[in-house]
Amino acid sequence: MNVRRQYILPNCTLILEGFSDISSSNAQDELLTILVNAECYFVGIPQKLQGGRTFLENLVKSVSAYAQEYLSGIPHPQNHQSSEDKIDLETIPGDHLHRLTWYPSISVNNSPVELILTTVQLFDLVEGIDQFFADSRTLPDLTLKLQPVSRRYRPPDEPLAQRVIPASLGMASLVVAAFVLFLLPIPQVREPEPKTQPTPTQPLPNTTPSPSPNTGSTPSNP
Amino acid sequence: MSPFISIMSDSSLATESKPVILDILPDFPISGPGCAMRIQQQIDLWLLAIEALELGASEYMLQTIQQLNLQEIVKNRIVLWRLRSTNPWRRSYARDTLNLEQAKALVIIASYRAKTLTVQIRQLLLAEQQMREKGLPVNCHFLLAEYLDQFRSHFSSRMNPRRAKVSIYLASEAELNELALSLLKQLLFCTGTTGMQRFWISLFDGEVA
Question: Which sequence ranges are marked TM in the entry (chain A) (predicted)?
Answer without folding.
Answer: 164-186
